[in-house]
Amino acid sequence: MFKTNNMKKSILQIVRASYEPKVPKIMKRVIEIQEGNPTESVSDQEEIKKLFPNTYGLPIIQFVEGTEKKQRPPTNVGVILSGGQAPGGHNVIAGLFDGIKNMNPDSRLYGFLMGPVGLIEHKYKELTADIINEYRNVGGFDIIGSGRTKLDTEEQFNKGLKVLKKLNVSALVIIGGDDSNTNACILAEYYKRINANVQVIGCPKTIDGDLKNGIIETSFGFDTACKVYSEMIGNIQRDCNSSRKYWHFIKLMGRSASHIALECALQVQPNICIISEEIEAKNQSLDDIIQYIANIVAQRASNGDNFGTVLVPEGLVEFIPTMKNLISELNEYLAHNETEFKCIKHSKQRKHILDNLSHENAKIYESLPETIARQLTLDRDPHGNVQVSLIETEKLLAEMVKKRLEKMTSEGKYIGRFSTITHFFGYEGRCAAPSNYDADYCYSLGYTAAELIGNGKTGYMSLVRNTTAPVSEWIIGGIPITMMMNMERRHGKIKPVIQKALVKLDGMPFRAFASQRDQWAINTDYVYPGPIQYFGPSEICDQPSKTLQIEKSNTDY
């Protein structure tokens, strides 16, 4: 497992290994810490403060140029890759490794294998220079593997503490998304409360793009994944415009937010892109969505265009208000009756669910195709979420639009041909070789995590800002994880979690999309972005996502 010698490499990987991530100029100088004012959680302040008395209210940190380099003792650090893969994770570890070695060459880095379970079960390996160098600037999490085990019990914390003490590890870096960093926050509080002398630092990872706020500009991996998806969508659109006979329904990753769908739409200009947050805000039904798509299909057909592309966010069903209510009731029921439900024969599970739902939700559940209904009752992930990637929303929409068009044909409202092809782009983008932006951003995140450790901080997330500027001007520091917390219902209980960042309908990226989508719907204004560029002028190699560029611009839409 995790063999690193004699790895087969492509020419790109061999050349890419020599790429030296560009870094903020502050990282090349003596660094001092500058602390801001005390912070508070994004909401539920009193509840969060009671739950995190030792790590609540910490200041935001910025690293600035200092005058005297401090001599620091050797530090042993542990690192965990948690949750789904995201391009750039290896560079976070490389930056962390270089950072702790810069503080003291005798510092050591240990990787816990297959995610948090490696900490609990004491499975680890030391990450030395020869291993780290094999993985610089490459995609994936295969250096130590990842997993979704949830760290949330004192028994787990204490088991982990035993191996940390055995290895003389005084700091643990958890690289993950909102749920994983929630775990990091809880772990930091516990170790602080029992005086374990173990710091815990988080890093913002998720291709979904929903781990950000007014201070954290983006989560790593989002830029690369969206560029990969946009290349594939562009290829489909080129084919679509060539054969002119298919409507392509393309579901894109994004469990709880539509950031990927929105970013890809801005890059490729599809005929239709559904934004889940808008559906919820307008209280639209599944029928409203079907009619919206069918109307555009009919209008294009009247112009002789019996083809097009539809982008669908992965988490759409959870944002349709009636479906959201159904899923919420299903979550509550399964949280308390999961064992009983699993003992029921598959052929009788649908009736069992119907018998235990409220009348209104039972009607909705009964109206769904059997495959979709069953997908809504599949096992939840370790954090209590519906596994929306298993719900074939793209096929549901394609099938229902076809039926609606048949009805419109009988009414004389549609004359055309409607043939569909469905796609789900998810895993194709999670382990791609990171773009220059993600390679640079991730390396800086890891190096900044090392600086937070060197300055004795715990309960912080590594922070890199001002990333639409040249890398030399990037700002590094840390944000208290408690600042991002709120209370939400999970597994039938109210728990503290990091608040997800959804697409803001009054934000400039959505407004930019909304101002152009009517034109894209009827005209064929496709853009074909092509593959990620790693070499060449900065304007084609180093640009961040369009979402981030628009957010940081002063353009009004």
From TrEMBL:
GO MF, one annotated term: metal ion binding
Sequence positions that bind Mg(2+)? 178
Q: Which cofactor does it need?
A: Mg(2+)
Tell me where in or outside the cell this protein is found. Answer: Cytoplasm
UniProt site positions, description: Important for catalytic activity and substrate specificity: 179
Q: Does the keyword Membrane apply?
A: no
Q: What is this protein called?
A: Pyrophosphate--fructose 6-phosphate 1-phosphotransferase
Organism annotation: Azobacteroides pseudotrichonymphae genomovar. CFP2
Name the gene behind this protein: pfp
